[in-house]
């Protein structure tokens, strides 16, 4: 029996790139899939391909940030396949620009598709799972795999909209993991890297032979988190690409300062903090750069 036999999975942004690879891998692992992307031939081709390979897939096109799309995705899963067990939030767009040049629309589009797009589907999926748990008296099988990015860990200078949306997705993942644990939900986020339409201009053409940056290198972790082994994993963030799966640790407290009199004065605060920030030129401190060398053998460092 395959890991996801009998399970029903939604994948957003499944018309190409990572979403298509993840959808194919979930279907190959036995899942019946409901695939979303903006309306168009690309999504239908992925559906047809999965069916031709012996899998099950149905298209549910629409803007993932639309309330109606979230509702339709869950309804399609339930009406077509009898339930819902896995939600993979993956759809995304870029509108890269430095913060001081960014337009309202560039900000709104990216935050809307990524952050609201994750929220809307999660809202309807978790409502369905909560009702199911209440009706049966038992937490059911429920998995969410969200798609963040190392842009959030680094605070990519040319992607303030994208980095902020991806940071929001990590927080949404944690809040969902906490809020829905008792209903059986396991929610995790991945920070993938792969050569796709989104990153092609940055990464360049694929080499001859197997591509270490292929989206198919990311899909096994999504299947793992969606599968039985994912039962014990929730509220985690992974970096995944090539031959790498890295499990991130939580942010830590770097230094604690206490006011001697119980309340800080400006002078006391100056004295306390100036030692911490005495050396070198100012540089962003709350960033994670440890993931960069992990990609050196396949990608080189991220910008
Ligand atoms: N490729 C990478 O290296 C990389 C790195 C970090 C994060 N990511 C994230 O992975 C996800 C997939 O990226 P990709 O590289 O496969 O990109 P991609 O551009 O190849 O695919 C994104 C898909 O999302 C769809 N989409 C866009 N807006 C949509 C909307 N409003 N509603 C429904 N579908 C919509 C697109 O049509 C497209 O099919 C994104 O969330 C991206 O931010 C990718």
Automatic annotation (TrEMBL):
One GO molecular-function entry: oxidoreductase activity
UniProt superkingdom: Bacteria
UniProt cross-references to Pfam families, sorted A to Z: adh_short
Keywords of this entry: Oxidoreductase
Recorded coiled-coil stretches: none
The Ketoreductase domain, residue ranges: 7-193
Family per similarity comment: Belongs to the short-chain dehydrogenases/reductases (SDR) family.
PANTHER family in alphabetical order: DEHYDROGENASES, SHORT CHAIN, SCP2 DOMAIN-CONTAINING PROTEIN
Identification of the protein by name: 3-oxoacyl-[acyl-carrier protein] reductase
Protein species of origin: Actinoplanes philippinensis
Lineage: Bacteria, Bacillati, Actinomycetota, Actinomycetes, Micromonosporales
